[in-house]
């Protein structure tokens, strides 16, 4: 699973810290699933599923005459054991069935259940309705909403597959499956495995038969139906398909088209050819998470569906595509035996994005991505959490920046320590030994130890069964008579053990050293020929560490010019840019960085360059014009157009006007803002002529202009983007802009804008209850009520009623 609501998690997870001290063991296996056969049809009128299930099981070890199946909010119509009527008890979402005799290990029996699943009635243990664990979701089932297609889809992880079929809903169970799914004729269907047949029922419905012989865990089951275009691709003779809404058919290959190449790459690095019989990806509406790795039937949230103008700038979804695909080895083929060990699924899926980016686009892009992931972990206030956690309040909370982002960084360290060959051979051994089965973290350690011959207990105890990360203070003592430098490494808090790379630069010469740090205080002395220009600690940038060492501006300038790692360049640009007012050399270095080989660093240099200082900036401006016209990345072009806009020079008018005709949304957005600085009415005119699709995607630029125009008639448009801008982005400027917009709307008398904003609060609040977003939404709506009370708006009573109705829905 890929969680895209990280910011919400970061903001609101603090409240959830109170840990319930219950030991979360692997689920005991009494009976094991063997095979699951289902016949299902949907009742769109009632948002229900009518089903028949044939569940084949066998005792795990000890003989038994009883089986307990999970079945959440079902109406049970009939139960049979091996075709004879069975005695059963259904309570607390569990179906307990007496078997016709005592069964021995290996002896199979089949339970038949005829049932109706009521996903709308799924309750949490406390009795509170939860919107995000219904398992089965009906989108606009009665075709009432003209803006939404009718769809049905499922979300099994963590334990919600039992909301639509009876099963043992635990990740340490595995079963093969066959599903007969009856749907209205006009719909297409998707499930795990292969579509074996389609049968017309001559009553406006059709029954599709899907089958998968390989076993997988119940949470990976998927069924979906709706009006989708299926775009066909292939890999090594198997079908690869992209299910998208019709409107996105023409760009589906631009969004998903790297999938076959990823399948080849991941097959190569794991040494295991993609182990399933097809690979489909489907984009659904109102999805409850980012994406989900259902075996051979991956679900993506609608964010995957991007317009051509966005894709030209950057396919934002490519990392997610890699993540879900890599789960088909780590998660689907070998499954974490319990949620406590989730790292063996999620850390690998997260790390696959690094691996794919490095392979496909080079190390800079991968390192940039890793840097962002590490920042996410560092800001998440989760230093007290172990990667493997046997104590947690709610299993959903395992899907956090520790299991994902930190685990990703830990795998990167482990790979560096073992070397590529041992690391990937170790992964191959781990996968082979546990194929179609389950594993825990010790299995991973044993496989890597087996291949490398190294003991890894110290590493796993420190990083998997311990918490926190490395924090270093570094100081240097120079002895100019002996020509030595002593590097003092001081661990600020916990004492970690790790190999440390140190690069010492003397003029144009670099000498690399590798040392071991194994104490709170360690000192290492190196001799030199010429006084070092720069020393870089953790020169390979592989440690999950916060390192503080004092460097001068000269050090950073030297660093930008000589050190090659993405992070060395990035940090140097950030530090140097602070000194452009006082140092010509600093300004010149930022000017040089406009030509950095990596596009995101060119964008950074453009964002940082200061053209309002005393030094000659002719060369810089010339370079920026050049980037605006000729760079091979539209994001760089857009950033350059932005900078030129700040010069408020009419000479660029035609450049901005041309930019507005670009296919790239980023370029249109920055051209618009820049044009607005020099020709307000011209820009407003061009803006009103943009088509609605582009407007939606340029909401931020357009909102900036509306706010500066104080155009109150546009509040309803702005309102629809406020929550996303405030909470679902990590960009500070965007957050600030929309916080301002929020305030403006809160004070306004615009009924449509207040209604739009309230609706969004209610929708997101209910959808993301598990992150306490509902409580936050109530607070903010309440704040708006307070603002209205104090206002002199003539319709404030009506507005307050809208806000209070929203609050009531959230508090239901
Ligand atoms: Zn995942």
Describe this structure in words.
The structure is a single chain. The chain is an alpha+beta fold and 812 residues long. Helices cover 39% and strands 24% of the residues. The strands form 7 sheets. An 8-stranded mixed sheet has the order 5-4-8-2-1-11-14-13, with no helix packed on it. A hairpin with a 2-residue loop joins strand 16 (229-235) and strand 17. Helix 16 (618-630) crosses helix 17 and helix 17 packs parallel to helix 19 (665-678). The radius of gyration is 29 Å and the shape is globular. Residues 1-2, 293, 323, 327, 346, 349 line the site of zinc ion. Zinc ion binds at residues 1-2, 293, 323, 327, 346, 349.
How many individual helices?
27
User: Quick check: average pLDDT?
Assistant: 94
Runs in which pLDDT lies below 50 for 5 or more consecutive residues are 12-18, 126-131
Structural class: alpha+beta
Q: Looking at the structure, what is the overall shape? A: globular
Main sheet properties: 8 strands, mixed
In terms of DSSP E residues, the strand content is: 15-25%
Helicity level: 25-40%
Instruction: Name the bound molecules.
Output: zinc ion
The count of β-strands is 29
Q: From the alpha-carbon coordinates, what is the Rg to the nearest angstrom?
A: 29 Å
CA distance, first residue to last residue? 29 Å
Query: Strand order across the biggest sheet?
Result: 5-4-8-2-1-11-14-13
